[in-house]
Design brief:
Nucleoside Triphosphate Pyrophosphohydrolase; 3 helices; 18% helix; 41% strand
């Protein structure tokens, strides 16, 4: 039986810590199109929830591989933000505290997995053309063109 992770994070009683990783390879950034809520259909930096006992780096390396099939070596934090989504009644449906880390590409070709609907390398000139939350666009404009 497949586990529906959405029910584990919807309507939380506290913020959920999560990581993402900025992976730049040959001048392009690794992004995923979300295949499940929150932000279904939006493009984002790959990542996900931190498991108990994982370091930020271990969580990022695991999550990026699960979502994209790409192997990375995660480094230091670059950017932190809250992703808060409310339902139609105004109740907090999701609240993640996301820590985006620098990462080095090791190997692999992006292939969507886990809860990603798509995974690909994206050039900086495409950032504004993709549906993406404001925090991710701000992060990519600041850090996604530096390597």
């Amino acid at each position: 039986m497949a586990l529906n992770k959405t029910h584990l994070t919807a309507y939380p009683d506290r913020p959920i810590p999560a990581v993402g990783a900025l992976v730049v390879h040959q001048g392009r950034v690794l992004l995923v199109r979300r295949g499940s809520p929150p932000a279904l259909g939006e493009w984002a930096i790959p990542g996900g929830r931190i498991h108990l006992g994982e370091t930020l780096q271990q969580a990022a390396e695991r999550e990026i591989f699960e979502e994209t099939g790409v192997r990375i070596r995660a480094g230091a934090p670059l950017f932190t933000f809250d992703a808060i989504h409310r339902d139609d009644a105004g109740r907090i449906q999701y609240h993640y505290v996301i820590i985006d880390l620098a990462a080095d590409y090791l190997s692999g070709t992006p292939t969507p997995g886990d809860d990603a609907a798509d995974a690909r390398w994206v050039s900086p000139d495409q950032f504004d053309t993709l549906p993406m939350n404001a925090a991710s666009k701000q992060f990519l404009k600041r850090f996604g063109t530096e390597k």
